[in-house]
Design a protein that fits this description.
mainly beta, eight-stranded mixed beta sheet, five-stranded antiparallel beta sheet
């Protein structure tokens, strides 16, 4: 049974407090947090690195002096640190291909970390579905049935000032009673005339399992059948948490009148 989960946020970061909270947080047990992956899109690919921490009120401590390389079984692609965004490593030459295995290699503080990932086949976005609400706003209706993660961003202007709303919608091909009783989410609404951008990421079964374990810790808890705290799954080697993914992406943009 497939289930769509909806999260509305202004900014998403897998390396936030919730993931960091899964590790042992002592001075002698600091873990590397890996957030990011690669897609089939032309442009900048990003990997974000930070460290686990104790104080949930602080920002994740960024890692700025790591060596980050992705290998596609033929070539090594070096990711360079973006000084304007501490902890973010980028590469503009790599484009992910379906069927290839990609290896993430990180060297930091005298330690080495690895992750292996491949992409599931990508599928096209379904036709856009929106409905007008009683207040005259438009509501995005997520109709995706294929396992995937869809980023939806609405952009509009009010008195010359740019406005934006962003949400992530997850369709996971897993069966879990907790998911069935996940708490309700706020509808994704925006004014008429807004431009709606959609980005749909393909998900492998392992990536789905990571998202399921992550969401059960940070989003589903508090539903009818609450989950006990546990460890978020990871495809990183020992000493690191998070997830390295490879996805095929389909995009579209529509002005909603």
């Amino acid at each position: 049974m497939k289930k769509t989960l909806i999260i509305l946020i202004i900014l998403l970061s897998w390396q936030c407090e919730e993931i960091a909270d899964q590790g042992l947080k002592t001075d002698n047990n600091i873990l590397l947090v890996v957030d990011g992956g690669i897609t089939n899109e032309l442009g900048t690919q990003e990997i974000k690195l930070s460290l686990t921490f104790d104080n949930l009120g602080q920002d994740p401590p960024p890692v700025t002096d790591a060596l980050v390389i992705i290998n596609d079984e033929e070539n090594n692609y070096l990711f360079t640190h973006d000084e304007s965004r501490p902890g973010t490593y980028t590469n503009n030459a790599l484009v992910a291909l379906f069927g290839k295995v990609y290896i993430l290699y990180i060297q930091y503080n005298g330690e080495e970390y690895y992750a292996f990932a491949t992409a599931d086949v990508g599928t096209s976005l379904p036709p856009l579905t929106v409905e007008e609400t009683e207040t005259g706003e438009m509501e995005y209706i997520h109709t995706e049935s294929i396992p995937s993660m869809t980023n939806v961003r609405a952009e509009w202007e009010v008195d010359g000032s740019a406005q934006e709303r962003e949400g992530f919608f997850y369709t996971l091909d897993v069966v879990d009673i907790t998911k069935t009783f996940a708490p309700e989410k706020e509808p994704f609404t925006f004014p008429k005339g807004a431009t709606l951008h959609r980005r749909k990421y393909s998900l492998t079964p392992d990536h789905q399992n990571f998202l399921r374990s992550f969401l059960s810790e940070v989003d589903w808890r508090g539903g009818g059948f609450d989950t006990a705290p546990g460890n978020v799954l990871s495809n990183l080697s020992e000493g690191a948490v998070g997830y390295f993914y490879v996805s095929m992406v389909d995009t579209d943009s529509t002005i909603v009148e």
